[in-house]
Structures are given as structure tokens and as C-alpha cells.
Amino acid sequence: MRRSAARNVSLLSIIAVVGTLGAAAPQAPVPPGPPAAAPKSPVAVGYGGAVASVDADASAAGVEVLRKGGNAVDAAVATAAALGVTEPYSAGIGGGGYFVHYDARTRTVRTIDGRETAPRSADSSLFLEDGKPIPFADAVTSGLGVGTPGTPATWQKALDAWGSKPLGQLLKPAERLAREGFVVDETFRSQTAGNEARFADFPASAELFLPGGELPVVGSVMKNPDLARTYEILGRKGIAELYRGELAKDIVDTVRKPPVDPDATRVVRPGDLTTGDLKSYRALHQAPIVTRYRGLGVYGMAPSSSGGTSVAEALNILERTDLSKASETRYLHRLIEASRIAFADRGRWVGDPAFEDVPTKELLSQRFADARGCLVKDDAVLTSPLAPGDPRDPARCSTGGTAAPTTYEGENTTHLTIADKWGNVVAYTLTIEQTGGSGITVPGRGFLLNNELTDFSFAPANPAVHDPNLPGPGKRPRSSISPTIVLDRHDEPVVALGSPGGATIITTVLQSLTGHLDRGLPLVEAIAAPRASQRNAAATEIEPALWNSPVRERLEAIGHVFKQNPEIGAATGVQRLPDGRWLAAAEKERRGGGSAMVVRPAGRR
GO: which molecular function terms (predicted)? Predict the structure, then answer.
């Protein structure tokens, strides 16, 4: 979801921001009427902890928890729950995600795989009819594309392992926000407009997002009392209600018999999710992947996400080039080619490790990166689709093998990055996949269901190449989500970041990391820099600032082919400064600009 730069924020944001400034005077009574307007800032520096997300209300919820003594994990749950209110088309309890946590006491990084899973009845023909893939749009708006949600299980697993506050307490800011509402801006209206036809076909979605049968009016207050009640129930009864209780039954009924308007002409295929699928769901504790880059430890998600291995492989390829001294043309050329190679390899080798033999260790090896990196020349461009290498038996500069194109992946999702006063850090990316997910709201519950199963390959991209991302019973679809934490030689945090954007997440994180670590850009400028995204495709996508730059002509002169993408990713990050302060950074303009906050601004301890 996007937000306008001068977004009106709710009373929750105003209270939390005042709290961050240390105001001690009693609050004056708030007059009736719409919440006041407050600008979002893309950067904040100070003490006591930091929160960066796409949304001011969500960041304020996280800061509120930190200010009351909660840690980074507590604040992450509160922030994510608030995003489920204000960014309902990108995230919510009907989806899933990946959670990376740094524990300051033990100086260790651990992760949680909260990816959605396919029904146990699913097989490789899930999206085939008469032996052919169904249209992608039909799969998106269906029960067929809905996976078992992983977000609530992720929250509870993180809190059990590292949190300090109960779930019910952490859901209160979001519950309040859902009940009192937030102010609609132009971007929320335009995102709703993009889903208007879909939402209109589902009475519960129409009632929530198309009040009175019309698009929400800019400046009006959007409330979600059903979601407020749902959060209250989860807080009181626990997440078991979503996996075993009445809420689980409502989810299953909605998937198996999508509640379509009787007058709708849309064909909405049912899914085969069962109460057994929800009961058997588990968010998974996982060891992170880690690679060394410029003497730093870069930690990310292991498969089922391809984000960690792909970012790491590209960094390993780039390790042999001094990017700090490279011209902008050489830097972008090398970045593009490293991304091309990493995507070629992830397409062949990365899937759900419970079903696929994923050579994670070998993909992360410098030996494999060197064998692949020698393909990169400064005066020529590789051709896509590029054939994958064999990480178990890397042949130097080999161009053999059979290529397969990268399958489609949507460009949505949301990300938050948080640090607390003890030095704990969270990088957490969560999603319901498509903007608006499946388009199907669970009646009476106030949240959209995901369409994450459409991240599976409907059929092999190339029948001659094994595709590790075909559907299977209980299988997690491959993701590109790449929450990343970087530690120094003493295992202390340097920077943490992540981004939404489907497959462009990998290239956004890679470019932001190298921009900051190699090119010396301040974190907020590394996030703001114009982006290029190469995903083993014939053309590299670039944003308008690069399209209109002389560097495009210089890159085209050596063979690059480009196409415009108006906006790639929407990163947020936090950085630990040498003097102990935290810096929070978010987008300056993308998705309307992000929201960076700290508990106590610089100058106040």
C-alpha cells in the first residue's frame, strides 16, 4: 500500500509522537471531528529505540510500545498489527511473512519462517485445468490461491521466544486504531479504485472498502470495527482462535465457498483449505543464512524464501569488485549482472526445503560465486534467460545448462524495521501478496485473505528444467522476501533493512546495502537512490531518475536493455550510530514516503 506524503494520521499517531517528544503535560480533550494532519519524516535520530515503516500510524504504534518499556519484538508485533489496519491491501492476519531478530544479549540472529502453506490436498496440478494453467487473474481472485495464514503464528512464536509483553496488550494500539479510524488519502482511494471491481463482487469487501457502494472519500475517516473485534478476540483468547476456533471455521468456510454477490458475473473458484490445515500450521524457527561481505556478517532468511540466498550470492559475486571506487556506470553494470546470475540460480535451486533438496550451503559459497562471477565482463552484457550454474560442482565461467525464465511475482507487501534501547533489532516483512490479496474479506472479521499460493509456478517455466517451486501438499511457495541484518566483527548491529516489492525486494535490498556499505551513502540516501532491478529477464527495469540519466546511455552502449518501472520497492531500515544513537530511515517519496520515528529525538537522553 502507498501513502501520500502529507498523510493525515489518526489520534494514535499524534499521541505517540507527542510521547516521543517527552511531553509531560496532561493532554487536552480532543474535539470531535477528523484526526489532525501530521507530516511523515523519512529519517529520525535519537535514543530509546527506533521504528521505520511505510505508515505513520504503524510507526507510532511501535514507538508507543517502546516508550512503555517493550522491546523490539513487542514493538514489531504492535507495528505489524497497525499495518493490518492502515495497510490492509498489503498485510494483515490473513497473510504471512518472514521475521529476522537480533538478540543483543547473546549477539545472535534467529529467524522465523511464517510463510503461508498450501492445503494438504494440493499437488503440482493445483492451478491446472485440462492440463493448462488457469489465467493468473482468475487464480488471484479465488479461494484456490489462499494459503494457510502464518502471520498470527509468527507473532506468537516471536513473542514466546524473545518478547516481553502479552499479545493482547500489543494488539491494543491497532485495535484502537481500527475502532477510531484513520484518514483516507488520495493513494488509499486510488488503491481501492484499482480493486473496486473485485471488492464489489464480495459483499463483505464492498461493505468495508466501498462504503455506500462508492470509493472512500479523501479526508474521510476509515474505520474497521470488525477488525477491532477480531483483534480483541485474538488478544483475549490467543492465536489458537484463528487456527482452531470459530475464526478458523470462518476462514475455511470463506475459502471453500467464497461469498460472492449473487449478481456478480465473476467466476470465483473455491479452495480446498480445511480446519485440519489450520490446526497443523506451524511457523518455523530457522537458522539464518549468513555470508561475509567486506568483513561484515550479512544475515537473512533461509529457504523457503529465496531472498537470503540470492542477496548473499550477489554480494559474494560483487565482493571481488571495489565498488567504492567504481564509476556509477561500472557500479550499476556489476550490480545488474550479479542480480541476473543470482536470479538464474535461485530459479533452478530454491524452493521449500521440506520438499526440495536446496543446496543452501553451496549457493552461499565464495567458490560458487567466483565461478559464476567470472562471467561478468565490463565491456559486455550477459543474455537472459541465463542458464543456472551447479553450486555442488561449480565450473568456472560455464555457460552450459538449460535456461528457464523467471516466473511472475507481484510487487506488493510491506516491511518494518525496529530497534530498542537494549540493542535488539527486528527486520520483518509481511504480506498478503497482491494489492488487496484475494479480494475476499472474511465476513464479520474485517481482514482480507491472501493469494500467496499464486507465488507457486503454475507449471514449470521450462519443462526441460526442474522447477523447485511447483505446488505440493502443505508446501510453502517460494518468496523473495529479504529482511536483512548486518553485524560488525564484534557481532553488533551495523544496519538492518528490508523492502516490499515481490521479486524486486531482492534487488532493492542488494542495491540499498551496497549503496550504504560500499558507496558511502547515508542510509536514507541509499534507500532513496534511483533503482535498477534485473531478474534474469531480457530487460532491466529502472526508475525514471535512471531512465532520464546519462548513465542509461552509457550502459546501453555496452549492451544493456532497459524498461521503465515508475517505482521499485519501498525500503525501511535502522542503523546504530557510533555514539549509541539509533537512526531510523524510510522512503522519501516512494509509496508516498515512509515514516521514521525514535523514542527520544537526538539531544534528549
Answer: glutathione hydrolase activity; leukotriene C4 gamma-glutamyl transferase activity
